[in-house]
Each structure stands twice: as C-alpha cells, then as structure tokens.
Amino acid sequence: MRKFVVGVLIMSFFASFYVFQQTRLLEYSYHINSNQKSISLLVDQNRQLRYNVARLETPARLENIIIAKKEDETYSLMRRQKIRIGQQRPISAHETAITARPFATAGKFLLNMFSLDTEAIAKELGEQKQTHLLGF
Amino acid sequence: MQTRRYRFRLGIITLTFTIILTLISIRLIYIQVFQHKRFVDLANNQHSVTIVFEPTRGAILDRNMRKLAVDLKVDSVYAVSRDVDEKEKTARKLAPILGKDKGFLYERLSRDKQFVWLARKVTKEQAGKVSGLNLKGIHLIDERKRFYPNGSLASQTIGFCDIDSVGLEGLESHYNKYLRGRDGYRSIIRDAKSRELYAFEKEYVPPVNGYNLVLTIDQVIQHTAEKALKKAIKKHNAKAGVAVVMEPATGDILALAVEPSYDINDFQNATSDSRRNRAITDYYEPGSVFKVVTASACLNEGVVSLEDNFFCENGAWYVAGHTLHDHRGHGNMTFREVIEKSSNIGTVKAAMKLGDKALYRYIRAYGFGTPTGIEFPGEIPGKVRPLSRWSRYSMTAVPMGQEIAATPIQLTACIAAIANDGVLMKPRLVSEIIDSKGEVIKEYKPIVKRRVISHETSVALKEIMQGVVERGTGKRARITDYTSAGKTGTSQKVEPSGRYSHSKFIASFAGFAPADEPVVAICVMIDEPHPVYFGGSVSAPVFKEIAEATLKYMEVEPKPKKTKESLG
Q1: What total number of domains does chain B contain?
Q2: Number of separate domains in chain A
Q3: What angle do CA B475, B479, B481 make, to 5 degrees?
Q4: Is the dihedral of CA B154, B156, B157, B162 positive or negative?
Q5: Is B274 domain-assigned?
Q6: Which domain holds residue B398?
Q7: Rounded to a whole number, what is the distance in Å from the CA of B276 to chain A's nearest CA?
Q8: In this structure, is residue B364 part of a structural domain?
Q9: How close B194 comes to chain A (CA, Å)?
C-alpha cells in the first residue's frame, strides 16, 4: 500500500511539473508574442519617421521654404521701411490745429484711425533697428 | 427473497453500465482509430497555422543615399466571412469608411470562406475607424506599401509597383528580382483565442528583405533639371520635354528629367503619356545638334580644318534635286563659323568632302542606331538607315540631322563622348546594389565603349562648340562664372503624311560645362514649343539654368573672370 501511495505521489509530482512547465511555456509564448509585436511596431515607426524625414528634406519642399522665408523677409523689410518713413513724417499744420482745439485727443484718435501711417507712428523702432534700416 | 431482488437489481445496473461503457468504448475506438486522421486534420487546421512574412522591398536611393522609394507597413482589411453574422449591417458600416460600394462588400461577406479581402493597403485613419467599429469577423492585417517621398521626382525613371509589391514600370520593374526579396514563413500553434504560441513553433524561415538600389541620379540635380524644364515648357507652350544631365567621365546619369511627369504615389491616375520615359523610349530627329557628329567626323578624318573656307551660297543651294536653305544667308565662312552659325549648306559641303561611308561609320561609332545599353526597360535603338538604303538626297540631309532619329540618351552620350576627350561611355543609371547593412551585392562600374575621335579632334570640337555659345546660335546658354560649349538644334517634326511640318518643331540644345574641363554634359529637347521654337531661344536657357545650378551645387571652381590685364 505504501509503495502504491509513494508511486502515486511521484507520478502526481511529475504530472504537476509537466503541467507547470507547459503553463510557463505558454506564458513565455504570450510574452514573446507581445515583445515581437512591440519590436515590429517600433521598427515600423522608425521606418515611418525616416520616411517623414526624407519627405521633409525633399529639394522641392526646402526650396519652397526658402522662397517663402525670402518673401517674408522682403515684406518685413518693406514694413520696417514704412514705419521709418512714418516716423520721419513731419506733423502738419492741420494736425497741430486739431491738437490745440478742445476734444483734441478724440480728434487725434480719429485722425490716427484713418491715417495710413497710424501703425507706424504707434510702434516705435529701437535704436539698433533704426541704424540697420538706415544702412539698408 | 430480498437477497434475490438485490442481486437482480445489481445485475440490471451492472448490465446497463456494461452496455454504456461498451458503447462509449466503441465510440472511442471509432473516433480514435477509424476517424483518427480526420480529427487530427481538423485539430491541426484549428491550431496549426503557417504565417507568411512578406519581405521589405529594397529602397531606391540616389547617389548620396537619399531615399527615392521606400517600403512602409500599412493595414489591410479582411473578413472571416463565416464569422460575420450581420452581413448587410457590416457592409453598410464599412462602405463609407473604406470608400467601397456597399453591394461589393456584401457580396464579399456573403462568400462562405475563412478569408476574404475587403480593402487592401488602407490609410491609418481608415484602419483606425475600422478597428474602432469592433465588428465581428472583420480584421486588420499588416502589409507593405511603396512610398515615394519626392512625389513626382524622376517618376518615369523610378517607375512603380502593383498592390502585391511587384515592380510594373521603370527601375522598379527592371530590378524587381533584387528589390523584391523572398517571402518567409513560420509554422506555429495557436491557442483558442488565435494567439500565436512561439514556444510551440514548428518551423521558421525568416523573410529575406530586398536589396537596395543605388542610382547615379542626384536628387538635387534632378529637381533642378525638372524645375528648369517645367518652366520652359510652360513658358513656350510646349507639349513635352526632356533634359538629361550626364557626367562625361563615367557616363553617370545625374538627372533624367521628363515632362509631363506624374506623382508616383498616385500612379493610378497618371496618363500613359506622362508615364513614358521619353529620354529612352522615344526618338526624335536631332536636327542641327547632329552637326557636331558631322564636324567631328570631318575633323577626325582630316578632310577639313577649322580654318578651311566654305562658300555658303548666300543661303540657298540647289543640290540633289532639292534646294537647301540656311535660316540666314551666308557667304564665305570658315568651318568653325559654319558650325557656330549652324549653316546647313556649309555642313553638307564639308560632309560631301568626307563621303557617306565615313560619315555612316562615325554615326554608328557614336552609338546611333543601337541601344546604349542603359539599365532600363524598353530602350529603343533610334533610327539610322543602313548605308545601302541611303538615297541621293541622304547626303544632304543626314549631316544636318535629318533622315536620322536618336533618343535623347543617345544624343547625351554622344555629346558626353566629345566632352570626354572622344571616349564614348555607356550611360549608367544604377551604380550598385547593396543589402540593408550596406554590403555591396553587385556593382556596376563605368564602362568604356570605345574611342570615337582623337583627343586633338575633341579639343578642336570643344573650341567650336564654345564658339557656338560665345558667338553663335547658342548665346543664351552662356553661364555666369563658367565657360560652356554646345550646339543648338531646331528640327521639324514629320507629319503623318510623311512631310516635314511647318508648325511643329523640336527645339534642342546639347552641350557641356565647363568647356575646357567638362564636368557635366546636358541635352535638352523640347517638343512643339510655340510661337518661339528655336533651340537657341527655347532649350539653350534651360541648359544654362541646369548647368549653372549643377556646377555650383557640385562646387566646381568658377573660372576666374578675364580682366583687361590678363587679356593683355
């Protein structure tokens, strides 16, 4: 009887070990599967990013950016020139008269609203920028 | 009494159990022994699966390893139609997302199959929406798709692939066996939830990714050429155009611009006209550009010298039953001036001194009438009539580029040969095939075809061609900071009736720069420009724009400007 019990116990142990082994194998399989998917995803993301870099570096795109930047710079310089001209504009006798009259502030405000140089007068240039513009 | 009854009952129970166990045993034997194979197959079908791994198609790279074509992962939508319960509802939900007809999807879902495609290679947004619907029996699967970061750049050269990543046109088709790679597969066991159990892997053969193709084309020069060509075609209301930029010393094609072009990412909507690589598959009568071939033959054979005088009949000469005209009347001119001013009469007179046999020999030596051997599908040999079929008139037509047809690539190779001291190189479009680690699998080295003219003739010809740009018909090809040489050409197209058209022309310019030590040879051909149609006015400026930008990009030392002191 004792031999039988020991035999059954040994058998049970090996059976349990086998089941444990199989279960661990399955767990590792799921783990490998998940890792494989992550690797594949990262590799694909890397490829996608490299493709995006290639697309961003195409000569046509870079050229467009340079052209747009040049245009922006040109407009910016044109705007600055306009500001400079606005600052140098002498105050007319009509404006002086308005300033002297009652409600002068309101009148000046209205005049500024409809004047082309309103913005130019409103924004003053710094010392450095003015020097640069004079050079230009 | 009770004992008898008890025994009877026990007997009944024992009999019943015996019968049941016997039946179960019979059934078990039937399943395990007689139906063994069937059930093993069923189980295998359910658990075992062979997954095919599509290889990554090799990239196409420019000479500086910049990507021109790459493979990326995309999703495809498929259905296990047997698992789809509400087929009509599913089709209705998927149709607007996938952009497919509801009836089409319903028909697919109605098939009694394990796997049916619903839409292949969908966008990320579409895949996300399909996934979000969480429909039973509808799944996503990874596939690879070709993307071209530059869109239409070098579209006719690169070509494109079909939905199964098989190259259909251009280099994609020609080098498909290298780019394609080899499928891999893995036989594994799946669990009840269809998850793959890698621990029970039966067999794994990894996919072999395709090799990368390194071209001789430079992305920046290609863009410059395409931009200049496009601008000229628009300006001169032309039908089409070709610009080829070649490195004379190696035969490397640095740019192969063909207009009209198309966006390779959207090749389905491209017209067959825009898909044609006109530089290789179309031929044209070269016109006056061909006079350099005649001139080189005459000089190389020593029948004329640069300072020999020719009377150009004041613009009209009756010969071989026809009157030959110059576009402007000229009297006496040196041979140098004949080519510089592009006189038909002077060129024909020089060719007559040479003779038809020698001229034909040089034409063939330059490679006209035979394919250049460029690694590209569909190259045509052009058209050179055998000498036996030349008419009396041929000797007045061929020397000035009529009765002969050449592809732009042939013409570029010819001009490059003059620039390369008279040595003809085989045009090269692919420099090497490399694997993903950068190891060279196959190398295509520059191939010298033959020496066509001597070094001395080449120097003399360069001088004449520089004169064309400095003083002759190609003044608009003059480059700031560099010297250039070339020849203009304006040829009439042939009408379907066989007569020369008076309204359809090909304006061409072929040349090289810098003139003394050429780095690039460029050929520009513009098809049917109007109202201005002269090669010197239409194509020469394109040459100038391409050459100027290319030389600066290649950091070629500008030639020091000649000062009064240096000129003495």
Answers
A1: 1
A2: 2
A3: 135
A4: positive
A5: yes
A6: 219-567
A7: 22
A8: yes
A9: 11
Query: For residue B312, which of B295, B287, B335, B289 has the smallest C-alpha distance?
Result: B335
Residues of A in contact with B220 (CB under 8 A): 59
- Classify residue A66: in a domain, yes or no: no
Q: Is residue A129 part of a domain?
A: yes
DSSP B330: B
pLDDT in tens, A18-76: 999 989 988 888 898 899 889 988 998 999 999 999 999 999 999 889 888 888 887 77
Confidence of residue A119 (pLDDT cuts 50, 70, 90): very low
**Is A69 inside any structural domain?**
no
Residue B248 neighbours by CB under 8 Å, 6+ apart = B416, B417, B419, B420, B425, B512, B518, B519, B520, B521
CATH of the domain at B556: 3.40.710.10
Supply the pTM of this predicted model.
0.80
Nearest residue on chain B to A44, alpha-carbon basis: B73
Segment B153-211, tens digit of pLDDT: 999 999 999 988 899 999 999 999 999 999 999 888 877 777 777 777 788 899 999 99
Contact flag A29-B72 (C-beta cutoff 8 Å): no
H helices, E strands: number in chain A: 6, 0
CB-based contact B70 A60, cutoff 8 Å: no
- State whether A58 and B67 contact (CB < 8 Å): no
> Which of B238, B356, B243 has its CA nearest to residue B297?
B356
Question: What are the chain A neighbours of B71 within 8 Å (beta carbons)?
Answer: 47
CB contacts of B150 in chain A (<8 Å) are 58-60
CA-CA-CA-CA torsion sign (B382, B386, B387, B391): negative
Give residue B4's pLDDT: 86
Q: Is B255 domain-assigned?
A: yes
Nearest CA in chain B to A41: B73
Residues in B touching A25 (Cβ below 8 Å): 197, 199-200
Same-domain status, A52 and A90: no
Interchain pair A29, B219: CB under 8 A: no
Kindly state the helix (H) or strand (E) to which residue A18 belongs, with its residue range.
helix A2-56
Where is B87: in which H helix or E strand? helix B87-98
Closest CA to B472 of B455, B491, B489: B489
Q: Do residue A51 and residue B70 have CB atoms under 8 angstroms apart?
A: yes
For A51, list phi and psi in degrees, rounded to 5: -65, -45
Instruction: Categorize the per-residue pLDDT at A120 as very low, low, confident or very high, splitting at 50, 70 and 90.
Output: very low
Question: Closest Cα to residue B61, out of B133, B129, B150, B183?
Answer: B150
Q: What is the spatial distance between Cα B6 and Cα B9, in angstroms, rounded to a whole number?
A: 5
The verdict on residue A62 lying in a domain is no
| Chain A residues whose beta carbon lies within 8 Å of the beta carbon of residue B219 | 58-59
What residues of chain A lie within 8 A of the CB of B149, using their CB?
A: 51, 54-55, 58
Catalytic one of B288, B296, B394, B508: B288
Q: From the CA of A16, how many Å to the nearest CA of chain B?
A: 19
Residue type for position B127: A
Asked if B72 lies within 8 A of A44 by C-beta distance, the reply is: yes
Examine the residue annotation and report whether B343 is marked as an active-site residue of this protein. no
Task: Examine the domain organization and report whether A47 and A85 are in the same domain.
Answer: no
Chain A residues touching chain B at CB-CB below 8 Å:
25-26, 28-30, 32-33, 36, 40, 44, 47-48, 50-51, 54-55, 57-60, 63
Instruction: Provide the pLDDT for residue A69.
Output: 86
Please give the residue range of the domain that contains residue A32.
1-57
Q: Answer whether residue B31 is part of any domain.
A: no
Half-sphere exposure of B45 (CA within 13 A, CB side): 7
Same domain assignment for residues A6 and A52: yes
pLDDT of residue A83 exceeding 60: no
